[in-house]
Amino acid sequence: MKIDKQHIEDTNQKSLDSHRASFGYIANRLTQKGIEVDDVVQKLADFQVAIPSWALGAGGTRFGRFGFQGEPRTLKEKIDDVGAIHALTQTAGAISLHIPWDLPEDYKAIKQLAASHSIVFDAVNSNTFQDPKNAAVSYRYGSLSHTDEAVRQHAVEHNKKVIEIGNELGSKSLTVWLADGASFPGQTNFQTALNQTQKSLREIYITLPGDWRLFIEYKPYEPNFYSTVIQDWGTSFMLANECGEKAFTLVDLGHHLPNTNIEQIVSTLMLKGKLGGFHFNDSKYGDDDLTVGSIKPYALFLIFNALVYGMENNPQNPYPAWMIDASHNIKDPLEDIIQSLEAIQEAYAKALLVDQKLLNDAQQDHDVAMCQEILQEAYRTDVRPLLEKSRLQHGGALHPIKAYRSLQVRKRLIDERGMDSVASGL
Ligand code: LRH
Ligand code: MN
Ligand code: MN
């Protein structure tokens, strides 16, 4: 399934006048404030977010799963789905694979298909939180932290294999997220588990190709409910430092205890040049993996404000790898991802409008009310016409969800794949 550029253009025609009017209005207002509007629009176009291969079908919960019709059955179909999202939004120019959920077979064909959609392969994700089929060892009691050398070695080898696979595809980074931890007090020795993890990560790290990066993802709990070995950014940061300069921390928005100040974490990591990757989602209670911006849009804006500040002021931090890490239980997964992308771009655009010079002056003067005014002035701006402009300039849809529906993308996917297709995975 491929979305025809001409069809997108045709659907855009109907909204062009209204777009021009609203863009003209906001562009004028921003220009009067001294903002380079073209610059903001260009930055939006440059901001590409990877789509995870595991989020294109319905996710479900531990209580069940309600499948969505027309789900992608193969990696090729998943790439087609990302292609459709990218064609409409012009923001999803990358896919992130989870191995072995989406093991490529024919590399050449997969690469060609991705290139035909203008999609590149972003970070590859290893999986040592599930037992592989017919495996000689079990990750029931951990993987890289396991007390048994044979299990640790198995997990290290898996990560090396994932690097090889990523290398074939043109990926440049490996993301390691470990479920390792304990469900009950006394089950493990914290120090031994951390030491083993460090040693195993180091073994993986030394096999990284020269231009690769290692991202270490943290999470406080789940699936283990007493302790997790890499529970927070501090642990990840420490492990990354001990690995070396190509190792970084990965922040997943859902991986924090309630009310954690994520923007401060982002700032600290970027100051130290150690923010490598970012997983977007939203949450109300825990690692809910909800649509980005659906619960705490102001918090997302503040996080973006920290990211923009870091990107502009911290050359010591490499450009981070962006990915959506959400799960879709009720909504059409593709619509859900489109909504997430829109929320990401909105928060980014608003952060780009923050007058950093004025904010700095107000901070120096301890004018606390003014500091808030400056942030909220940017936050309250309706930036949607800027997003529209950026998409329009690159052949995307003015209104991606509307276009998705009027082009009947889901119906076409169902016609092609059937009502009962189930997303592939382990
Ligand atoms: C863990 C996580 C991690 C995994 C993905 C499936 O909760 O965020 O990034 O790889 O979900
Ligand atoms: Mn994640
Ligand atoms: Mn998660």
Automatic annotation (TrEMBL):
SUPFAM superfamilies referenced in this protein's UniProt entry, alphabetically: Xylose isomerase-like
Key word Phosphoprotein present: no
Alphabetical UniProt keywords: Isomerase, Manganese, Metal-binding
Span of domain Xylose isomerase-like TIM barrel: 102-288
Pfam families linked: AP_endonuc_2 (PF01261)
Annotated InterPro entries: L-rhamnose_isomerase, Xyl_isomerase-like_sf, Xyl_isomerase-like_TIM-brl
UniProt superkingdom: Bacteria
The name this protein goes by in its record: TIM barrel protein
Organism, as annotated: Pricia mediterranea
